[in-house]
Amino acid sequence: MKYIDPHIHMTSRTTSDYEAMQKAGIVAIIEPAFWLGQPRTEPGTFKDYFSSIVGWEPFRASQFGIKHYCTIGLNSKEANNEPLAEQVIELLPLYALKDNVVAIGEIGYDDQTDAEDKFFRKQIELAKEVELPIMIHTPHRDKKNGTLRSMDVLEEHQFNPSKVVIDHNNEETVKSVLDRGYWTAFTIYPKTKMGSERMVEIVRQYGSERIIVDSSADWGVSDPLSVPKTANLMEERGISKEDIHKTCYQNALAAYGQSGNMKESDWSDGVNYDQSILYGGSSVLRGQEPKKSSPPNIVEN
Amino acid sequence: MGTDLRNKVIEVCLENMDDKDATTWFSGKLSAIDQPSSFFLAFGMINKKIKRIAIRSDHQLHEALTLSNPVFDINTWTLDEFCRLAFLLGLPTNSNVDTIKTLLSTADIREQVTIYKSIQYLSNPEAFLLQVIDGIRTNMVDVFDAITSNNSYPLRFFEESFWNQMVLKAIFIERPIFKIFGIDQRRNEKLANILHDFVHERWSAHRPVTPELWRMMSGFLNGKISEDLKRVINDESELGRIAAIKVIEESKFDNATDWLKTQEYQSPEMTWDQIGLNVFSEK
Prior knowledge:
Chain A has eleven helices and eight strands. With 301 residues, chain A is α/β, with parallel strands linked by helices. The model of chain B has no long low-confidence stretch (mean pLDDT 94).
């Protein structure tokens, strides 16, 4: 089966992860712009970070046959450094229209401060202007209120719920998010967010319409194989193939495909640059052959 | 030349658009770009407005572009890239360096590729030398290829040390050197000697070397390089053998020529470009 992981921070991951993901059937990923674990202090570090997720990281992923997309945005945590945030907001239009950008995100609330609210609203307006979907990060603390407030603000700005993915849901938020017409994503992340067994029960109870599974794997103890593992568990526990396909592939494609930048054909024939046109169909080696396994102590020459 | 060339490019862009929305949008932007911010936005919006399709060109366009780049090939361009070329050609020469520098520093892969393919056609290409040299330092293969394939820039503007770095890197990252314009013309002794060292590094590591590399030795044989070639003729792949014989025949270095006469061999008919093509079709 093929999978999409629509929320994973590959900047923090190794090539072994890419190899394992490719082997497990992941064909496309979305890397939301986020907090790197340590607050940035200069706009230039944001700029270089954005450049890396529209340039270098897609290239790195392509070497493993994985199509890389990203979202561009100022995350809620760093929105609290207002003078810096103002400068980062100025950078966003330079990146929002890039080739692999499928949404403005991840944006929303962390502590639910006034500064977070201000920059959240600014970015909703940016998404409208550049006609992109939005990826919402819901807070770890006071999650339920933060989630409801995010939806209220989006609706106040008359942003269409069918173009918004609300992420990091749990049993307490799922119903209201689904009822209000949003794509409803769940992060399978050990200890702090959802476990895969709970995810199976959610799909059993709510079905697969507008429900999306992701890993949010990053610099913390997390698992870049959360999506395929959860899919396997769903199968073991009797969830239908169709529901698995929708929650672990199709819904993410439908939601972010609304950007116009994400299509199945991007990966179905390999993930390289427009090779067929550029090289007149002549075969030029790009990327790498999938690796063979070597004996444990031998590093390939 | 500047405006004529731009008008010709615009004409071909419009001829190749098959939907009215694209034509209207593109024509509108051509006159509306008056400052960097509107240029950045339009350059980015190409993604959403213009299709990535192959383009048909005509004789006049070909003539106009081959003035800057004798190896211009329309098959290496798609419509969206060509529209971006039209925008780049429209930037005023006095400020285009700053604008393009900013653009490069925020560009995605596809944009970088297009910019590096386009710089050679601007009216002040020499002003972008540092940017292009920096482009060669990339690890993104498509970006590297944009500068080294079908591009006249390195031949026209790179001094020897940068030229050599480029060729060496192409060999190192296994990119075709036969696509580098001027590859034979810019051969030099220093490069031949650097490559000789490179070959020995590879051999010590029990790794093969690309047969294309021997092309750079032609005309610069010495005792050491002759020994390398003898080894290749005895041990390496068929293409390596052909390449090594070719170098000896071309170089007229007595030591090697005399040795070759003692061997059983056929004079190769393959050209260097054919050897390169074969190397890359085997992969």
